[in-house]
Specification:
By secondary structure, this protein is of the alpha/beta class. The protein is built from 9 helices and 11 strands. The protein has a single domain, classed as Divalent-metal-dependent TIM barrel enzymes (TIM Barrel), CATH 3.20.20. Helix 1 links the parallel strand 1 and strand 2. The longest helix has 22 residues.
Length: about 300
């Protein structure tokens, strides 16, 4: 039976970094696949040179990820960017492109689902022609852009309604368990059981409720509607990765698990190596049941 594979994400780098750091990150994880952020990872060297570097390093693309949102403002730009990303994916043999939902001033899940499905339709026409799956990453209000909590992807039931409405094999979920936790949703009990039929890709990181005024050195704090979370070494936070990966495996998921530690560059390679070792142990069934860390609310 085919097993899940490990990849690393280019989201950890800036426009000026190119892909050199991403190649080092993949080597530290001892993996052969990367999530290529477009256009960010191509800004310094250009798309052709960036892809050549990755190819020469023996790396394939697990996913082409974009900062695109089809709901709210910027729909036209998002459609254009997604078309470009789908083209990049197709030329490299990659079959996934990542996107985000978007936000509005008010919560209107039925209206948002309808609007998103309409905006997505021409994108899926192109994606299906290129045999590329568009994956929607579930999000929380990481940057304070959605004070109304209008983003459908933070609510599993609304997200399931969107996938059911679109009903396309070329549209699925990028399951980010930590993002659900930061949106005050239990990924194990309230998100994954409902959304399993649509999982086509997965992001892997760990978080814990903030227990101090500042995050631990090297890690990142996110605040969602007054709840603060700190990123943490994989396996030390509140995510029950053995249970989550067990559920994915039981459902037949054999895609990528993409590491995005969201930590300082000074510790990125060491943390990536450690996280990849942990993840391999989980995939191979060698990890004991998860124990939730203690924290102060």
């Amino acid at each position: 039976m085919q097993r899940m594979s490990i990849a690393v994400s280019g989201t950890e780098f800036t426009d000026s970094d190119g892909v050199d750091g991403l190649i080092e990150m993949a080597r530290s994880a001892q993996c052969d696949a990367v999530e290529f952020w477009y256009p960010k990872n191509a800004v310094r060297d250009g798309i052709d040179a960036a892809l050549r570097k990755l190819h020469r390093a023996g790396l394939r693309l697990a996913c082409v990820s974009t900062p695109s949102q089809l709901y709210g403002t910027g729909e036209a730009d998002a459609v254009s960017l997604l078309h470009e990303a789908i083209t990049v994916a197709a030329r490299t043999g990659c079959d996934r492109v990542n996107t985000y939902f978007g936000h509005a001033p008010v919560v209107d899940d039925p209206g948002a689902v309808a609007a998103y499905a309409g905006a997505l339709a021409p994108v899926l026409d192109y994606a299906s022609a290129k045999e590329v799956v568009v994956v929607l990453e579930n999000e929380f209000d990481a940057f304070g852009w959605d004070p109304a909590a209008s983003d459908v992807s933070r609510r599993p039931a609304a997200l399931a309604a969107l996938f059911a409405r679109v009903g396309s094999p070329w549209f699925g979920l990028n399951f980010d368990a930590a993002n659900f936790l930061c949106a005050a949703v239990s990924p194990s009990s309230d998100a994954l059981p409902l959304l399993l039929p649509w999982v086509r890709y997965a992001h892997v990181k760990d978080v814990r409720r903030a227990a101090a005024e500042t995050p631990p050195a090297g890690w990142t704090r996110y605040t969602d509607h007054g709840r603060a979370y700190d990123t943490a070494p994989l396996g030390t936070g509140e995510l029950d990765w053995p249970a989550l990966i067990g559920s994915l495996a039981a459902a037949g998921y054999a895609g990528y698990l993409t590491l995005e530690p969201h930590c300082a560059r000074s510790i990125l390679l060491a943390e990536t190596a450690r996280a990849a070792d942990y993840l391999r142990d989980v995939i191979n069934g060698h990890m004991p049941p998860h124990r939730r860390p203690s924290h102060h609310n």
